């Protein structure tokens, strides 16, 4: 995912946001009311300089209990919250409890109001905002790297061996489906001519098992699956990695009712992420997550350095605008995002900038880059 840059003057026009949100420059949260409607961007107190960003979180305005949705049961998508709870980071910013609900698609309950925030695919959230919920906003990147990996079963050692075989990238129309097709083309294999592409549900763990059991001959899998697949007699045939702001946090009702809470949530989880991406803390993080009953076999633990690298599990929650521009452009081409979508219109970065400033981190994206 990649991006183009625009002048700071464009921020006031393109970063539209729902509700009367707290201004960057002051500590006031008085406009964050549930009754507020979409705000005229000309009235928005958006930051023009870093000095305008208020890094002080008023805990008296923070909601004490939150319910958030995550689409993946793998520990990587839960450990920011569990570590923040374990180490007291949420309480530091005024939040007492956070309940995580694992839901295959957390956007409907987020839009319906039963979730406060959702961790989900960036493009899907932006597309949902464009198509329906005008108050939904993408807030911060969670995973900023993408590994496009084709795992195959026994006896497949080259692109030529794939001819006539069955491959899945997950559900038709998903990003995984699109990028596995591109990976095949990049390696001289034409989808739907040289191989049979099938649609399957579930996450990457289910696709791995489908390869191991022979249900399919190859599938889009994750880096952590390499050792497991090799022990079963398979292998990674093709792979590529790139910077892509593929998933992150979004909010709608909470952003209108209590923008201070959104900032507090991001500050606590980013503080946890700073701890997690410090490789010296690997064993403590894994101990916390195993105590929470997450299944982390040795093969998955061995992938910790790759999956929790600061550029992959983005340590500051930010992104390069050019990467986002490229990503959303690709998704428009894949028809998963409506034609003409301007991602800036459905992205609201003030809570992220405030959280970064609260933690003493540089603002990312930089104001000048937006």
From TrEMBL:
Signal peptide as annotated in the record: 1-22
SsuA/THI5-like domain location: 81-279
Keywords annotated in UniProt: Signal
InterPro entries given in the database record: SsuA/THI5
Matches recorded under PROSITE patterns: PROKAR_LIPOPROTEIN
Keyword Signal attributed: yes
Protein name: ABC transporter substrate-binding protein
Organism expressing this protein natively: Nonomuraea cypriaca
């Amino acid at each position: 995912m990649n991006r183009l840059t625009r002048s700071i003057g464009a921020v006031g026009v393109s970063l539209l946001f729902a509700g009367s949100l707290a201004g960057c420059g002051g500590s006031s949260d008085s406009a964050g009311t549930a009754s507020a409607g979409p705000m005229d961007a000309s009235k928005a107190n958006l930051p023009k300089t870093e000095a305008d960003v208020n890094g002080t979180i008023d805990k008296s305005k923070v909601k004490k209990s939150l319910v958030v949705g995550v689409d993946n049961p793998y520990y990587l998508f839960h450990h920011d919250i569990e570590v923040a709870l374990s180490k007291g980071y949420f309480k530091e910013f005024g939040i007492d409890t956070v309940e995580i609900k694992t839901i295959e698609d957390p956007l409907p309950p987020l839009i319906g109001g039963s979730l406060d925030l959702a961790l989900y695919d960036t493009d899907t959230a932006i597309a949902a905002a464009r198509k329906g919920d005008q108050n939904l906003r993408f807030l911060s990147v969670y995973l900023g790297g993408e590994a496009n990996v084709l795992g195959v079963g026994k006896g497949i050692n080259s692109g030529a061996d794939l001819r006539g075989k069955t491959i899945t990238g997950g559900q038709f129309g998903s990003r995984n489906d699109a990028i596995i097709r591109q990976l095949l083309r990049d390696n001289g294999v034409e989808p739907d001519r040289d191989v049979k592409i099938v649609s399957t549900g579930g996450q990457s763990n289910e696709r791995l098992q489908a390869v191991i059991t022979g249900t399919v001959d190859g599938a889009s899998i994750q880096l952590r699956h390499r050792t497991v697949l090799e022990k079963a007699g398979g292998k990674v045939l093709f792979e590529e990695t790139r910077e892509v702001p593929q998933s992150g946090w979004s909010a709608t009702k909470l952003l209108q009712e209590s923008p201070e809470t959104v900032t507090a949530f991001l500050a606590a989880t980013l503080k946890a992420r700073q701890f997690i991406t410090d490789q010296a803390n690997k064993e403590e993080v894994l101990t916390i997550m195993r105590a929470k009953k997450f299944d982390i076999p040795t093969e998955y633990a061995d992938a910790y350095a790759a999956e929790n690298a600061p550029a992959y599990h983005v340590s500051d929650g930010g992104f390069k605008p050019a990467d986002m521009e490229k990503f959303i452009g690709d998704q428009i081409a894949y028809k998963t995002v409506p034609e003409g979508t301007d991602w800036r219109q459905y992205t609201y970065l003030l809570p992220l900038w405030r959280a970064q400033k609260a933690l003493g981190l540089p603002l990312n994206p930089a104001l000048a880059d937006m």
